[in-house]
Amino acid sequence: MVSHRRVGAGALLVALGACSGSTQNAPPVNGPPAEANNLPRLPAPGGDGWNRMMSDQSRLFHFMAERVEPAQAQLLGTEPFNPQTGHGFGCFNCHPHEGT
Length: 100
Known about the structure:
Blueprint: E1 3-7, E2 11-15, H1 48-56, H2 58-76
Antiparallel strand pairs: 1-2
């Protein structure tokens, strides 16, 4: 079952089954694995493609990191991704990425 919650000015975030499956550092989520969804494949973190994406799509990147990721984590009852620990709900819980 997919759970929905309206946030902000009519925006609709979808969680618990709509975006991705589980990863090693995140809680399990029932639903299709990230590789099976229609979200864009992201470059591998830390590489040239990742840095270019962060630069070229800065507004979108910050929106996802500052708004979507924390809201999804809250809906799932977990913490947002923490780059220092490598744990929490993050980009690759929903997006496939190079190397997958």
